[in-house]
Specification:
single chain; 2 domains; binds zinc ion; elongated; two-stranded parallel ribbon; two-stranded antiparallel sheet
Amino acid sequence: MNNLRNCAECGRLFVFVNRNICPACIEKEEEMYERVRKYLKENPGVPIQEVSEKTGVPEEKIIRFLREGRLEATSVAGGLTCESCGRPIKMGFLCDSCREQVAREMKEIAGSSKLAASKEKERRGRGMFIADRIRSEQERK
Ligand SMILES: [Zn+2]
Ligand SMILES: [Zn+2]
Protein backbone atom coordinates (compact mmCIF):
# COMPACT_ATOMS: atom_id res chain seq x y z
CA MET A 1 0.00 0.00 0.00
CA ASN A 2 1.19 3.47 -0.80
CA ASN A 3 2.12 5.40 2.26
CA LEU A 4 0.68 8.72 1.16
CA ARG A 5 0.90 11.78 3.34
CA ASN A 6 0.26 15.46 3.13
CA CYS A 7 3.42 17.49 3.24
CA ALA A 8 3.66 19.41 6.52
CA GLU A 9 5.20 22.28 4.62
CA CYS A 10 3.21 22.72 1.40
CA GLY A 11 0.28 20.34 1.94
CA ARG A 12 0.92 18.37 -1.23
CA LEU A 13 0.34 14.63 -1.22
CA PHE A 14 3.53 12.58 -1.37
CA VAL A 15 4.84 9.10 -0.64
CA PHE A 16 6.16 9.09 2.90
CA VAL A 17 9.74 7.91 3.32
CA ASN A 18 11.21 9.20 6.54
CA ARG A 19 10.29 12.87 6.76
CA ASN A 20 6.92 14.50 7.07
CA ILE A 21 7.66 16.85 4.21
CA CYS A 22 7.67 16.12 0.48
CA PRO A 23 10.85 15.68 -1.60
CA ALA A 24 10.41 19.11 -3.16
CA CYS A 25 10.28 20.72 0.28
CA ILE A 26 13.23 18.67 1.50
CA GLU A 27 15.18 19.98 -1.45
CA LYS A 28 14.07 23.51 -0.67
CA GLU A 29 15.06 23.03 2.96
CA GLU A 30 18.48 21.71 1.97
CA GLU A 31 18.95 24.72 -0.20
CA MET A 32 17.95 26.99 2.73
CA TYR A 33 20.34 25.14 4.99
CA GLU A 34 23.19 25.63 2.55
CA ARG A 35 22.40 29.33 2.29
CA VAL A 36 22.35 29.76 6.07
CA ARG A 37 25.50 27.68 6.53
CA LYS A 38 27.36 29.71 3.94
CA TYR A 39 26.18 33.00 5.38
CA LEU A 40 27.24 32.00 8.89
CA LYS A 41 30.62 30.89 7.64
CA GLU A 42 31.22 34.34 6.24
CA ASN A 43 29.46 36.17 9.06
CA PRO A 44 29.85 34.23 12.28
CA GLY A 45 28.19 35.45 15.45
CA VAL A 46 25.37 37.45 13.90
CA PRO A 47 21.86 37.36 15.42
CA ILE A 48 19.40 34.82 13.99
CA GLN A 49 17.17 37.70 12.95
CA GLU A 50 19.88 39.08 10.72
CA VAL A 51 20.65 35.66 9.25
CA SER A 52 16.97 35.32 8.44
CA GLU A 53 16.81 38.74 6.82
CA LYS A 54 19.94 38.25 4.75
CA THR A 55 19.22 34.70 3.62
CA GLY A 56 15.44 34.88 3.37
CA VAL A 57 15.20 31.75 5.50
CA PRO A 58 12.53 31.91 8.23
CA GLU A 59 13.90 32.22 11.76
CA GLU A 60 12.14 29.09 12.94
CA LYS A 61 13.90 27.11 10.21
CA ILE A 62 17.27 28.41 11.34
CA ILE A 63 16.41 27.53 14.94
CA ARG A 64 15.41 24.05 13.77
CA PHE A 65 18.79 23.60 12.09
CA LEU A 66 20.43 24.67 15.34
CA ARG A 67 18.29 22.37 17.48
CA GLU A 68 18.99 19.47 15.17
CA GLY A 69 22.67 20.18 15.59
CA ARG A 70 23.15 20.79 11.88
CA LEU A 71 24.44 24.26 12.62
CA GLU A 72 26.76 25.16 15.47
CA ALA A 73 24.77 26.92 18.17
CA THR A 74 27.79 29.13 18.79
CA SER A 75 27.77 30.38 15.20
CA VAL A 76 24.87 32.74 15.88
CA ALA A 77 24.67 35.55 18.41
CA GLY A 78 22.80 34.47 21.49
CA GLY A 79 23.04 30.89 20.29
CA LEU A 80 20.44 28.39 21.28
CA THR A 81 18.62 28.55 24.59
CA CYS A 82 16.78 26.04 26.75
CA GLU A 83 13.05 26.21 26.08
CA SER A 84 12.35 25.80 29.76
CA CYS A 85 14.85 27.99 31.62
CA GLY A 86 16.51 30.00 28.85
CA ARG A 87 20.04 28.87 29.63
CA PRO A 88 22.35 28.57 26.61
CA ILE A 89 22.54 25.09 25.11
CA LYS A 90 24.45 23.51 22.24
CA MET A 91 21.57 21.68 20.60
CA GLY A 92 18.14 20.18 21.21
CA PHE A 93 15.39 21.84 23.24
CA LEU A 94 16.39 21.60 26.88
CA CYS A 95 19.54 22.06 28.93
CA ASP A 96 20.96 19.10 30.83
CA SER A 97 19.36 19.96 34.16
CA CYS A 98 15.92 20.61 32.64
CA ARG A 99 16.20 17.35 30.73
CA GLU A 100 16.99 15.55 33.96
CA GLN A 101 14.07 17.25 35.65
CA VAL A 102 11.73 16.14 32.88
CA ALA A 103 13.06 12.59 33.12
CA ARG A 104 12.54 12.65 36.88
CA GLU A 105 8.98 13.94 36.51
CA MET A 106 8.21 11.25 33.96
CA LYS A 107 9.49 8.65 36.38
CA GLU A 108 7.37 10.13 39.17
CA ILE A 109 4.28 10.02 37.01
CA ALA A 110 5.00 6.40 36.13
CA GLY A 111 5.62 5.68 39.82
CA SER A 112 2.44 7.37 41.02
CA SER A 113 0.32 5.47 38.55
CA LYS A 114 1.92 2.28 39.83
CA LEU A 115 1.13 3.41 43.36
CA ALA A 116 -2.45 4.13 42.37
CA ALA A 117 -2.67 0.65 40.88
CA SER A 118 -1.41 -0.98 44.06
CA LYS A 119 -3.80 1.11 46.17
CA GLU A 120 -6.61 0.00 43.89
CA LYS A 121 -5.60 -3.61 44.44
CA GLU A 122 -5.49 -3.06 48.18
CA ARG A 123 -8.89 -1.44 48.10
CA ARG A 124 -10.34 -4.29 46.13
CA GLY A 125 -8.70 -6.77 48.49
CA ARG A 126 -10.31 -5.07 51.47
CA GLY A 127 -13.61 -5.02 49.64
CA MET A 128 -13.44 -8.75 49.25
CA PHE A 129 -12.57 -9.12 52.89
CA ILE A 130 -15.66 -7.11 53.87
CA ALA A 131 -17.80 -9.12 51.50
CA ASP A 132 -16.50 -12.28 53.10
CA ARG A 133 -17.29 -10.98 56.55
CA ILE A 134 -20.80 -10.02 55.54
CA ARG A 135 -21.27 -13.42 54.05
CA SER A 136 -20.05 -15.17 57.17
CA GLU A 137 -22.25 -12.98 59.32
CA GLN A 138 -25.22 -13.86 57.20
CA GLU A 139 -24.36 -17.51 57.49
CA ARG A 140 -24.29 -17.16 61.25
CA LYS A 141 -27.86 -15.88 61.32
ZN1 LIG B 1 6.04 19.98 0.36
ZN1 LIG C 1 16.92 24.50 31.17
